User: Fold these one by one.
Assistant:
Number 1:
Amino acid sequence: MHIVDRRLNPSGKSLANRQRFMRRAKSMIRKAVHENAGARSIKDADEGGEVLLPAQGVQEPSFQRGASGGIRDHLLPGNKEYVTGDTIPRPQQGGGGGGSEGSPDGEGEDVFRFALSRDEFVDLFLEDLELPDLLKRRVAQTEVVSYSRAGYSVSGSPANLALTRTVRNSLSRRIALRRPKAEELAALRAELADLDPADDTRRVELEAELLRKERRTGLIPYIDPLDVRYKRFDPMPKPAAQAVMFCLMDVSGSMTEHMKDLAKRFYILLYLFLKRRYKNVEVVFIRHTHTAAEVDEDAFFNSPETGGTVVSTALEEMRRIIADRFDPDGWNIYAAQASDGDNTASDNERTAELLTQHILPASQYYAYLEVGRDMDHFPTGFIRRDSDLWQTYAALVAKGAPLAMRKVGHRRDIYPVFRELFARKTGAEAAIA
Amino acid sequence: MSATLRAERPLFEKADWQFSTIQRCHDEIEKIAVEEMGLSVYPNQIEVIGTEQMLDAYSSIGMPLFYKHWSFGKQFARNEALYRAGMQGLAYEIVINSNPCISYIMEENTATMQALVIAHAAFGHNHFFKNNYLFKQWTDADGILDYLEFARDYIISCEERYGEAAVEQLLDSAHALMNQGVHKYPRARATDLRTEEKRERGRREHDERVFNDLWRTVPGKDPARHDPTAEERRRALLQLPQENILYFLEKTAPRLQPWQREILRIVRIIAQYFYPQSQTKVMNEGCATFVHYKIMHRLHEKGLLTDGAMVEFLHSHTNVVFQPDFDDRRYSGLNPYALGFAMMQDIERICENPTDEDRTWFPDIAGHGDPMAVLRDVWANYRDESFILQFLSPRLIRQFALFHVVDDAADPTMRVNSIHDERGYRKIRQALARHYDISWTSPDIQVVDVDLAGDRRLIVHHRALNQVLLEEKGARMVLQHLADLWGYDVQMKEIDPTSDAVLKEYNAKPRSTP
């Protein structure tokens, strides 16, 4: 008999088959991924995970007997009360009660569970999206300086003292200049102390020797300023590797669940997108009515608030948070604002001012998403008046503010709109509607 | 058995194991299996694998190497997802009918489980593979691994020459017809997979050698001359009717390239290799379960298993042979392990302690005295259907409380045809045996004719036993594949075998003409 240990064999033998399967089911997986993404929370949107695929698309057909009709018989164990000739009402679903026709693994073939890794998931999700030039250019500009070690220097701050190097220098200098060692001096002194008092010649000899050595020790310092070395650091410019994403949303009564769902989908996309670009992505949720507050994700999407609508409060809050925690020099700031477009009329001016003076200069990217009711309900030819906020922002854009704005009415528009925003374009102006 | 010498030390005392533990288990088990039970097995090769490798093996129908196809990726993904979600455990072992007999055992198993698995797979299944007449007749244990390697390499070379898409499409079609790709009745020639490979090369070389474009220009026979016996002759030449559809396509489909025929051949040879397994599920598992049960008990008697290990084994064994009642939520058909094991034990009992009932029902073996000899004979010469028909005893029917329900779509209700009583035993035995008879359980589909003079339409009949029709959606898809392979239209009629009435008709056109 042989025993073979196969555990160390390379794993992933099925990888090729798996890839073939994914290629085959690509369109279905893509669809499932997009549907699945809606049900996720923003922060774990880019975890891998299971998607459910309809089985028809990847069926392997074979000739099977139909589930009903004709004469069929069942042999079942565990008879308790039946005797020959009894009749049993037919169960609803063919064979469900009979059992012998049921699917043996109990799962059925109608849904197919498929686990995707994180990368596969994100790849499919953001397939053929590109970072716009706008982003690339500005990302390259925002740099932070970090210091990296670069050898030794003779000057520096005591905190950067390179101890080993300093002592090494001192040691070689001491050896070169023949500075007497502490042990030699100690030995001389000991000999002097133990010496026979009568032996004067030897005493004189030793005392002279000791004196000479002590003098030499005094002349040659243990550590000379020449020996001292400091660790040297060179400043290295580095692109900022962290981003913060501000989610601003109007949560006043006029925002329906549907609208919030649209906003959430947009945020998820943006989050995934940033996550691919930056190592660290922080998310800040700011909700506002006539007052604004930073909240957690759950409260952001789920707890309803009442009150008026004053957009500038949210921008004010955002400005405060930026000043507090996210220095624009160190952070790439992205913001997405979702609203149904309502704003208190008197607030529009303040909003515009805040945006142009403070928010836009600090941000990499600012997107405004106006979520509407399901637009299918509007009869064709019905022209809606642009909302207050839309008009305000449109005026800013007209003046050349780097602001992206879109209207979205239906879930299926989110992805196209997102793609439109991030499709390859030239220059900042092109990103504006 | 005979007087037992108790061993000084058990084989193992803790759950963890080393390779030396496995070696010792194997040696002790081999002693019992070969010397005491008289089993005859292929040499064993035991391979230790991890979870992912087990999933790999699952997805390629348990074979260590296989050609690549997306459906195996699908299997893998499915099993993996189920396993990760904790909805499905993995088998403790997979055993391959090859010489040497390869058993995969999982590294996660405890020492007791490894002993159980070795007894079950490396001796139980192994003995069955080596001795059962179906396996002897249909499979070639010496050549299967080489053949699979050839198949894999051949398909890879086809992918390189003709493109992955073309090969995948062909395999899709071939897989759809895989169940219709077996010879159900033996023919004169025994299959030998090694020569198979050589012959393929020979065939191709011959084709290339004798190829001469001139033949194309030679005028053919006058097609107008119609001979009344021509039709008979044609059908005989085409070997019609033919139930092995893949074989028929391989030999006669007009538009297939040689490499396509070869791939059809590969698929059908692999299908043929698995054909005996589907007919011996109850016996194969019954044999293996009976063997491991016997061996583990003997090990315990000899003092080679601790009491704790024995309890662990019994727990696992009981789970395996559990048969829920029909009205139980867990019921999903008769458990082949339970039925097989119960029947093997019953045969042993009949040989050793027969009752009067047994003497009337089984005069040949009742009180035979040497149950192992009887069982070895049974394992060698029966398949599920004949085995049940011959050896299901009234006592077991009572024990399982089997009853037979007939569901005739013409009646408003189902009817209990027979139960476990004096009048019912034979009927139940017959009905149950029929459930394991492949000619009853798999639809009877045959190629009956080809319209050679006309539009070359292929005509296929499904003889709908008991008027049970095919599931429509699947049937349409398979016919589409069939039409793609045939290259011309395909018509399928579902026919009531009692009246020859056509119950349903399907037509399919090929999707693309190469």
Number 2:
Amino acid sequence: MSANGRPDMTGSIRTGIPHWIGDALVGLALAGGGAVLVALSLPIPRGEIGNPGPGFLPLVLGLVLVGLGIGCAVRAWRAHVGAGVVLAERKAVVCVVALFGAALAFVPFGFVPTMAIFLAVLFGVLASMPWWRAALAGGVASIAVWFWFERLLGLSLPAGVVGF
Amino acid sequence: MSSFGYLLDGFAVALTARNLLLCFAGCLWGTAVGVLPGLGPLAGMALLLPLTFKLDPTGAVIMLAGIFNGAMYGGSTTSILMRIPGEAASVVTCLDGYEMAKKGRAGAALTIAALGSFVGGTFSIIGLMAIGPVLADAMLTVGPAAEFVLMLTALIVVSAVSNSPPVKTLTMIVVGLALGMVGLDPLTAWPRFTFGSLDMTDGINFVALSIGLFGVSEILLTLDEKIPVVPKAPRWRDLPPTREEFRQATPAVLRGSVIGFLFGLVPGVSHIISTFVSYAVEKKISKTPEAFGTGAVAGVAGPETANNATTGASMIPLMVLGIPAIPATAILLSALLIHGVQPGPLMMSEHPQVFWGLIASLYLGNIILVVLNLPLVSIFVTLLRTPMGILAPLVLTVCLIGVYSVKASPLDLVVVAVSGVAGYLLRKFAYDVAPLLLAFVLADRLELSFRRALTISDGDYAIFVQGPAVKVFLAILLVVGVLQAAAVWLGYRTRTS
């Protein structure tokens, strides 16, 4: 998609936002992470300054992270390079979605069906295979990988719904 | 027993058929991941780390060290043939290596790189043997306060030498320390940030975090890049350098060995910096500096030697101080801890077979790589022809299997996905994620030594500036600070990057 929301010829997803805004957002996200760390550290006993408890260092680190995250964001804002950038390629986005799907389905559905779908999707998108070839390659590859790791190397992979 | 006697024992351990095979397999896999753009030593080691759990500690470390060594070697192949560094430390080799290849001297460049790597690796191993035991004895007298200052110094040095802006590197260090706080408190066993999950009481799985940050993010970043056409591999008869090329390479190799070894002792991205320094030195003292960038032999020999000389040297902070100087040694540290071996000053006396077996295997690995790299260069070039669309899904599958095989925990699979995406975004915006991993590994010990020191001193913070060891580490910190300020003042480095 291009900046105006229409697909472009390269198949990339363009955010349309300048690099510095993305950079600043990452800095703010880190500062937000620091704030969450502070909030989560407050209920943990902090002890005294000369005898710190389990909550002392996390609290200090959270506060420092808030400061550094804001520092990163300010630094990005001051750099202010205005050109738009490709934040994420279509292929990378598909890869991330497939990875999260596989991570969540790995145990409940079992190794072979999960990885067959995972590999088929990625072969189809990344290697631009026709769907039937991607599905076939995904199925064969998942069984081959299962055989290699489970049977030959003796690793225990999740059986899931189909039993292997 | 003398160091030499222990080394002979180490060779007896490393030369068993099983350990030789593990060393060979590690070198082979390491060279393959070093050759493939997008996969470096870290990803290669992280991917095979779970498979080493079934081995004894010596075998595991020998295999991982083989991968590390192999990846350092393999990175030079793509640098010379395609002007693509297989890993960051091979960037400088592109400058003259590729120019030599364009002139039809690719074979000679590969041979010089392999022989230089062999000499550099050997030099660093001798240095490791000489310095390691002495430093270990000295470290036995160090208390928790000095240990805390030492680890803090290591992290600050990492932020000073990182390629990223200091504020971003410091942020990554703090994130790494914060992630290291997850799990049971090491002193009171208070559950921190576990959200009631039993899985989380052990903390965040190092393997999942490292595979996500380096393996998965590397694959995602590589998808954005375009891989150029793969060239033909050089023929056998093109491999030997001419007498003149040998003459030019020899002094550069010797200088590169010393530079690489010295930089390998410094925590951070020493293996990368040493190559740049070596290149700068060679160019500076050359009678024909204008030849650099157009195919100068010393421009390949020096950096490639320095690159591999850091390998052995970077083992010194790990084995003697228990501090991983570079991310790859953080993975070695993790493997040792998983096998119940705590690297540090006591390692040589408590686990001599692991320590000296590793040193001997590093040496054998160097020989295996010289024998392996040159004859198999055409096979490794063929590997480059594998389309990324096929390779990436298979590598991601191995990532998931590798992480799952550690604890069979579904949570770890989510950790690898989250850390992969986080690593991808952070690296897109010039955050160096290596310090994050180093800080994560050190977090536990850092907190423990901090709180123990305060208990000993009855809450007096002056303990962190007292004692000879502490003063030495603080002096190092001061020197780093002065050098950093001088670099900014002289214009080598801007205040922000």
